[in-house]
Design a protein that fits this description.
This protein is mainly α and about 475 residues long. The chain has helices spanning about 5-60, 65, 70-90, 95-110, 120-145, 150-175, 185-205, 210-215, 275-280, 285-315, 325-340, 340-345, 350-370, 370-385, 390-400, 405-435, 440-460. The chain is globular. It is a multi-pass membrane protein.
Length: about 475
């Protein structure tokens, strides 16, 4: 081969490599956008509840306690998600479970958008909670295995905040202009949900988490006849030499089965679903993280859900006060992006202490200073302070838990967090029904204070990875 032919061959190979790299980059960008869209949908649901709360009370002629039943319904849904998440993830995988979650959430909006009786409206929120629980667990787990995991995870939760920021700008005009038919708002939510289902299907095409990002480095080969672990079949030889990352698309070679296209759905992981549940539930770190996130999510959604009512009842606001929910969740979004370098510099453990103390100080100002504008501003700043906490918890899980338990632990934590996000707003509503909505601030301060103590247990327990 002449020099010119060599040069042409080299040039062609380089162009092919560049094209392949560009294609891979575009695929990864699409995958990131899609999981961000999932969390945008979850945030959209949480952000719309606050502005619509007064309309629900007026339309159905119900008090604080009864209207708060929507959060109990969400709790039921996310508990079902928590119990079923690992089994379904191992059975059908990320690429099917996540769009199924978006479809179930959309089913809830179908039940809401025609203004049916209140019991049906409450039941619809069971579907919403179930769908959100599945989606949240799956995309959080996937984000921690992507390149630049810390940044992607923080951006993922910023997408949640963005959804919760945008939805009040749609929900509040319904509160002001569509008299007696606020439920039509949920047609918009339904359209977003169906769009998310379609995007998930087209982007991931039913692939499992391992097929999307590759096998975890510490997972071995899937055992089949002829090459089984000696502990399970006497006389065979363990393949100790096969360690490290194995491409997810590896295929069967003779009687040796490498990880196949079935991925997680084969059930041939190092541990089965039940064993993973037991391993997680026997780890104190998991309990501490779940209790902490229960408190954190309870505070976040209680503020987002009741801030509008607080400003109307206690600070003389009007229906435009619904926009304060956008301010709060907008602050949450900003905190999850702007504070990334600060959090990385301080470390996840120390930064959570600092952000919590700041949030408590701002809540004290809202409670003690009777100013409509001041309260609205402080709610936004509370959102900034709370923003980095959830993604910090997700990243700590990846530091302290065995890798095959990441999905299950993140899923359990996410679902317990959703339970907190349902229970605490309900408790707030029940207390407010008896004593007035002013109780929001002292209750949030108390919960944030308790969360500091729980975070101390999380930080101490996670000092050493098992």
């Amino acid at each position: 081969m002449t020099d010119s032919e060599n040069q042409r061959a080299t040039s062609g190979a380089m162009r092919e490599s560049d094209t392949s790299g560009a294609s891979e980059g575009a695929r990864e960008d699409t995958e990131r956008f899609t999981i961000f869209l999932v969390m945008f949908l979850v945030g959209w649901s949480d952000g719309s509840q606050g502005p619509l709360l007064p309309l629900l009370q007026e339309y159905y002629k119900i008090d604080y306690v009864i209207v708060s039943l929507i959060w109990i319904a969400i709790t039921i849904g996310v508990i079902i998600a928590a119990v079923s998440n690992i089994h379904l993830a191992d059975w059908i995988g990320f690429g099917l479970l996540t769009p199924l979650g978006a479809l179930v959430q959309s089913t809830g909006y179908v039940l809401m958008c025609w203004g049916g009786p209140y019991p049906l409206f409450v039941i619809a929120y069971v579907f919403v909670g179930l769908g959100m629980g599945w989606q949240d667990a799956q995309v959080n787990s996937l984000s921690t295995r992507m390149p630049h995991a810390t940044t992607i995870t923080f951006m993922l939760h910023a997408a949640y905040g963005l959804g919760a920021t945008v939805s009040p700008f749609v929900a509040t005009p319904f509160a002001q202009r569509v008299t007696g038919r606020f439920y039509l708002y949920f047609i918009t939510s339904l359209g977003l949900g169906i769009g998310t289902v379609i995007t998930l299907i087209l982007t991931f095409q039913g692939r499992t988490e391992d097929q999307i990002v590759g096998k975890r480095p510490d997972e071995g080969l899937e055992a089949v006849p002829g090459v089984l672990n000696s502990a399970t079949e006497p006389g065979t030889t363990p393949l100790d030499e096969h360690k490290g990352a194995v491409p997810a698309e590896a295929e069967s070679k003779g009687d040796i089965m490498l990880p196949t296209e079935l991925g997680e759905a084969t059930g041939a992981e190092a541990r089965g679903s039940s064993a993973k549940y037991m391993a997680i539930l026997s780890t104190p770190k998991a309990y501490f993280l779940c209790i902490y996130i229960f408190l954190y999510m309870g505070v976040e959604v209680a503020i987002g859900g009741w801030a509008t009512t607080f400003l109307i009842q206690e600070r003389g606001g009007n229906s435009s006060s619904g926009y304060v929910t956008s301010g709060f969740f907008g602050g949450l979004t900003v905190g999850r992006i702007v504070l990334i370098p600060v959090t990385n510099r301080l470390g996840h453990r120390l930064s959570v202490y600092i952000y919590t103390v700041i949030a408590i100080g701002l809540e004290l100002i809202v409670w003690l200073v009777p100013s409509l504008i001041g309260s609205a501003l402080c709610f936004s700043l509370v959102g900034v302070a709370l923003g980095p906490m959830y993604p910090s918890c997700v990243m700590i899980i990846t530091e302290v838990m065995p890798t095959d338990l990441h999905t299950g632990t993140i899923g359990l934590m996410a679902c317990i967090g959703f339970v907190g996000s349902a229970i605490m707003p309900f408790i707030t509503g029940a207390i407010a029904d008896r004593h007035g909505v002013w109780v929001l601030q002292p209750l949030m301060i108390a919960l944030l204070t308790v969360s500091i103590g729980m975070w101390f247990l999380v930080a101490r327990a996670s000092a050493h990875k098992p």
